[in-house]
Design a protein that fits this description.
This protein is of the alpha+beta class. 39% of the residues lie in helices and 17% in strands.
């Protein structure tokens, strides 16, 4: 889903006096190099702008963009004429709340199906993370003047997030996809193939897109990475707190 404000990058103008006009070709080359340098500076400023915690920033730096996983709910609900993206990050050791080894061994190593405390737990962390907080205020305001109708095939019409504007479309033990009427939000949490780390994924589907969407892609990609990093950090904190509470109650 395309969220947040669109920031228009303004690049510093090129100082003609700094370019040595030895020839037309060298002039063009110097101009191109100056423009590329300005672009990199602008991108760095944009990435560093969010007020991230040190842990969130470390997660952010490791996020990579990838294709929709084969057989995933993201692939299932996205059509060839839709805009689809996917981002993923792998995090160290599996949380302490992971199932016992006997349970984990029953899951095929090639296709683990595991989400720490369930995929709903990660969805809760996602919609309560710091990066989503500004958007939650917007959703709160919108929810007072506009509501989405229940999904036709929903077993629970009240199964929603984000002040009712993200309706649960489908889920399984490691994935969930939510519909916002025209856009869909997907999350997945599984053990990695080695069984010692956790893969967190987040993706979006924008239905029936056209060429005009291209201008929104760069800020959307940046915002998606920030959201995933913040949600993973929040999920890890929530998991650690639940583990501490469980230990205290024993």
């Amino acid at each position: 889903m395309f969220r947040g404000q669109i920031r228009v990058r303004t690049h510093s103008s090129i100082n003609p006096s700094s370019i040595v006009l030895l020839s037309g070709e060298r002039d063009i080359k110097a101009t191109r190099e100056e423009s590329q340098l300005s672009n990199r500076r602008s991108e760095n400023q944009e990435v560093n702008a969010p007020n991230m915690s040190s842990n969130t920033r470390r997660i952010f730096q490791k996020i990579r963009q990838c294709a929709a996983p084969k057989g995933s709910l993201l692939e299932k609900h996205g059509a060839k004429w839709d805009y689809i993206d996917c981002f993923t990050v792998r995090r160290g050791e599996a949380p302490s709340s992971s199932p016992p080894s006997s349970t984990a061994s029953a899951v095929p190593a090639a296709k683990p199906a595991f989400a720490p405390n369930g995929i709903r737990s990660f969805a809760d962390s996602f919609y309560s993370c710091a990066a989503f907080y500004p958007e939650s205020w917007v959703l709160w305001a919108v929810s007072h003047v506009y509501t989405l109708p229940p999904l036709p095939n929903s077993n629970n019409p009240d199964d929603r997030y984000g002040y009712g504007l993200f309706r649960v479309l489908e889920e399984n033990e490691s994935e969930i996809i939510l519909d916002s009427e025209g856009t869909q939000t997907w999350m997945k949490v599984v053990l990695s193939e080695d069984g010692h780390s956790v893969d967190y994924s987040f993706g979006s589907v924008v239905k029936h897109t056209n060429a005009d969407i291209n201008i929104l892609i760069p800020p959307h990609v940046l915002y998606s990475k920030i959201l995933l990093a913040s949600a993973v950090a929040k999920s890890e904190t929530d998991t650690a707190e639940r583990s501490q509470d469980a230990n205290k109650s024993e």
